[in-house]
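quick one, 173 residues, struct below
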Amino acid sequence: MSAAIAAAAASVCVSCNSTSSDHSDQNIQNHYSIPFLPPSPQQSLPIFSRYESQKRRDWNTFRQYLKNHRPPLALSRCSGAHMLEFLKYLDQFGKTKVHTDNCPFFAHPHPPAPCPCPFRQAWSSLDALIGRLRAAFEENGGQLGMNPFGAPVVMLYLREVRDAQAKARGIAY
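---
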């Protein structure tokens, strides 16, 4: 909103709040003297698809992770090992219970009682995340052949997570 429009709106609000009867005609006149201005196209925000919004949010999360990393990491210096650190860091926010080998409910698809096994990120969530980050990396100036999200070690980690989670639920691939 421009300063002129803001000032005009403020003056209308001030004059509309007046309670004296001798100013009632002036209030009406001030109220109708402000022309209607449609929002400019520059002020409207672009509408993103759900995928684009998730990709943007994931990219910003990863950039924040790089910034908070000790020592801070530049994107150009990231490797597959750094991607594994990031994926393991995300496990703390997971919502999927993954039974350990010594859990009595290991390999049971529907355990009958709660257990102390840790929550992890689901394999499908990690797989989708890596796909979005691979695309975001290339869209943000990364070189096609240097994408750390497509590193063989990351693909191997995803396969291991998938197999371990399936085994913990008693599902054979």
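The CA atoms of residues 106 and 120 lie 15 Å apart.
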